Amino acid sequence: MRIFDPHIHMTSRTTDDYAAMYDAGVRALVEPSFWLGQPRTSPESFYDCFDSLLGWEPFRAAQYGIAHHCTLALNPKEANDPRLLPVLDELPRYLLKDHVVAVGEIGYDSMTPAEDRALAAQLELAADHGLPAIVHTPHRDKAAGLARTLDVVRESRLAPGLVILDHLNETTVAAAKDSGCWAAFSIYPDTKMDEDRMVRILREYGTERMLVNSAADWGRSDPLKTRKTADAMLAAGFTDADVDKVLWQNPVEFYGQSGRLELEPEKPEAGGATYEGNSILRGGS
Amino acid sequence: MTPNPDAPADAPAAEPAAGATAVAALRASVDAGLTPEAREWLAAALADAAADTPGPSAGLLAWEAHFAAARRRCGAAAADTVRVLILHAARADEQVAARVYDRGDAAERRAVLRALPHLGLGPGAVPLVEDALRTNDTRLVAAALGPYAAAHLGDHAWRQAVLKCLFTGVPADEIAGLAERAAGDAELARMLADYARERTAAGRAVPADLDRILDLTRKEV
Ligand SMILES: [Zn+2]
User: Fold this and answer.
1) Out of A94, A96, A269, whose CB is closest to B139?
2) Is B142 an interface residue toward A (CB < 8 Å)?
3) ipTM
4) Total number of domains constituting chain A
5) Whose CA, among A9, A33, A219, B185, lies 20 to 30 Å from B120?
6) What angle do CA B65, A44, A99 make, to 5 degrees?
């Protein structure tokens, strides 16, 4: 079984997770830039985060046989801090990088005017760069948040086929599907969505334009939820081909629209990393 | 950027004539491997770099966007060399090299490090080498230790870098000017011997390159 996790925050996970993910079948992933778990105080903190997603994380992932891609953005929560807005001016430079396959994650957190502006501006940036976008739906006031999100997406130059609506559930899936956007579901240990509910949604709505992710981060989450959902699909009578479609072909098709997907992880080269000799495996140097 | 006060005093000055020949050779070697379409793209990219053509968004020159896109346009094998050529055509000085490095992904940073010996720079770009040597990314550590570091990196930082290569499995062959700089270096010899003792005490193998470098330190200067 081959698995592509289309949304996971590896920067807050250990190398043990990379090994376990590989064993579970994960061969590719996309890591959106996001909140640190505490507020940032300057734009430079974003550039350090982008550095990590463009350098260290792909290097780390490659040691474990996993192809790493990322999405970059000013996240919704921090779009409300005027000190951080200069990030929007630096993003065009970063969106040109090889393994940036989308703008994201963007969307609403508290649905403020500042979030309106950041969302609209970054959808335009995505259109300018020929990139798709990951738009997450807010955790609070979700149905109203989705309606407002869909309005902003419709007003943008970005085609719905280039947009993921993330963190969906039973109450938001229908509107998301009707919009023509891709529908993504984050499978968590005990909130938001679990694998059995996901299977029911797939039964009702089919496997077209459907994505399943672990969205694992520093909170209570599980980087193996993609595999567990695949197993739940098989147990419920879905075929291997259905599982491959949802957990591999769909993310490949969506992010492939960037023209920048490379599904073979960069090989450690003669002049550099060796698996045995690598500093990651020795806890740094 | 301030020059490294610890830099060796006898660092060779940049040689524009020899540098130009080396860059022409790089161009010829990379052109030979490119598709006609990529070759045409490279020629246009180098022209943009020479002309400082404005780029696709504010604060970004056209060549900076080409530098980022080089691997997609010319393929992974040619990307490093293409990026070196673009930096050279843009006449990148220490400030420009630092800007491109700071805002670059790992592959772009590696290309900046590889470009350093071709840009006719003084010691002002040493902080970039030091930054790369602080990372745990062995591709950057290896690229940092090219001819520019051989000429400009201070003795203490250079010895630490040699040791880091042994720690992280970067082959000693990646270190430019190794034989010349190691020759007669008693301090490096002491560090290597201590490291070998530490490994042996822990019951672990001594890296094969260690003895080779130790031998080099015993050569006359
Ligand atoms: Zn997320």
Assistant:
1) A269
2) yes
3) 0.89
4) 1
5) B185
6) 40
